[in-house]
């Protein structure tokens, strides 16, 4: 990856944008957040979403999903590509993608979670993409977009330039069920934000970003989808975990395994998203959520102390599986200013 990343041209209000399901066709089972997301794209962002054959097709093959991606990127009337949601099947899609085709028709791609596979694929072909901004989760948030999320999305989609990440004053915790219309009649429950936690913050680090969802990165490593570790030297590592809520021990083990590969020491700085600490299977109260996040942070610090003791780390950043969510350029430049406690991304 070049130290001078290439940013695809940005869409403008009135443009057509592709809405795809490169992993799980969530709109087929959960139309309510999807249709809300489409409506907000049209009415609040002035964009015209365009569906493709597999956007709502459950069980679409990797070849079919790859064909939709190729079609969206090569269509000259499409100016950006947005994922509907994540999933768990995208790792099987990657072998069917034409990297040169996507590079030569580069467009901004937005997605996260299982879309880490595609973000990484675009990264290794020199295309800056965007970690965040899925249609069902961010655009389809019940009640309204969070103001921090909306500001970040607008800057990443339309404006470009530098953008300082802000700390949220309030964060959403519990989720409503997507199949229940009552979920979308009010804002999600929230609690006061607790700010970020800085570790080894005596320096300023700047580099292009790489990373994504930690569980998916671990799958990618098992599938031998990572480059030689030297390819990541000097990058800012961006990590977050999913609604499956891996324990602090699991986080340590996944990071330890990447450390044994020699990967962790390549990154002078790492940003950890605020861990999702509530699910329908684990409806943690406020104290349990705080304990879970502290355990996960301890697991990560244990791995960093062993494999990357000089790395600057920032925890509980508003990125990934969290609300509000701020978009992170994937392969774009990030400056982590420890003394000023400031994170600046370039959209």
TrEMBL record:
Gene3D superfamilies to which the protein is assigned, alphabetical: Class I glutamine amidotransferase-like (3.40.50.10740), LD-carboxypeptidase A C-terminal domain-like (3.50.30.60)
KW Hydrolase (keyword) present: yes
Keywords: Hydrolase
Span of domain LD-carboxypeptidase N-terminal: 17-132
Recorded GO MF terms: hydrolase activity
The LD-carboxypeptidase C-terminal domain, residue ranges: 206-336
Pfam family name, one: Peptidase_S66C
Origin: domain of life: Bacteria
Matches recorded under InterPro entries: Carboxypeptidase_A_C_sf, Class_I_gatase-like, LdcA_N, Peptidase_S66_N, Peptidase_S66C, S66_fam
Family under the similarity heading: Belongs to the peptidase S66 family.
Name the record gives this protein: Peptidase
Classification lineage: Bacteria, Bacillati, Actinomycetota, Actinomycetes, Kitasatosporales
């Amino acid at each position: 990856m070049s130290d001078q990343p290439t940013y695809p041209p940005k869409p403008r209000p009135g443009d057509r944008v592709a809405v795809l399901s490169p992993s799980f066709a969530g709109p087929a089972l959960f139309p309510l957040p999807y249709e809300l997301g489409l409506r907000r794209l049209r009415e609040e962002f002035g964009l015209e979403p365009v569906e493709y054959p597999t956007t709502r097709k459950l069980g679409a093959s990797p070849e079919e999903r790859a064909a939709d991606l190729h079609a969206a990127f090569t269509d000259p009337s499409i100016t950006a590509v947005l994922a509907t949601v994540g999933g768990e099947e995208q790792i099987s899609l990657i072998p069917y993608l034409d990297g040169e085709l996507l590079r030569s028709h580069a467009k901004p791609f937005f997605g996260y979670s299982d879309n880490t596979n595609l973000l990484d694929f675009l990264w290794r072909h020199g295309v800056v993409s965007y970690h965040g901004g899925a249609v069902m989760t961010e655009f389809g948030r019940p009640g309204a977009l969070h103001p921090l999320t909306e500001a970040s999305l607008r800057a990443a989609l339309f404006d470009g330039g530098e953008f300082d990440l802000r700390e949220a004053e309030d964060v959403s915790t519990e989720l409503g069920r997507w199949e229940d219309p009552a979920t979308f009649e009010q804002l999600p429950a929230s609690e006061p934000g607790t700010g970020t936690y800085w570790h080894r913050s005596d320096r300023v680090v700047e580099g292009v970003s790489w990373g994504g969802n930690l569980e998916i990165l671990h799958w990618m490593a098992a599938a031998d989808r990572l480059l030689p570790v030297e390819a990541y030297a000097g990058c800012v590592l961006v990590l977050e975990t999913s609604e499956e809520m891996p324990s602090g021990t699991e986080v340590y083990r996944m990071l330890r395994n990447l450390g044994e590969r020699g990967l962790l020491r390549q990154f002078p700085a790492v940003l950890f998203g605020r861990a999702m600490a509530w699910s329908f299977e684990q409806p943690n109260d406020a104290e349990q959520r705080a304990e879970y996040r502290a355990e996960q942070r301890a697991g990560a610090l244990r791995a960093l102390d062993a494999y990357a003791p000089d790395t600057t780390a920032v925890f509980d950043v508003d990125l990934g599986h969290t609300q509000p969510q701020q978009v992170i350029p994937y392969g774009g430049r990030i400056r982590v200013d420890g003394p000023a406690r400031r994170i600046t991304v370039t959209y």
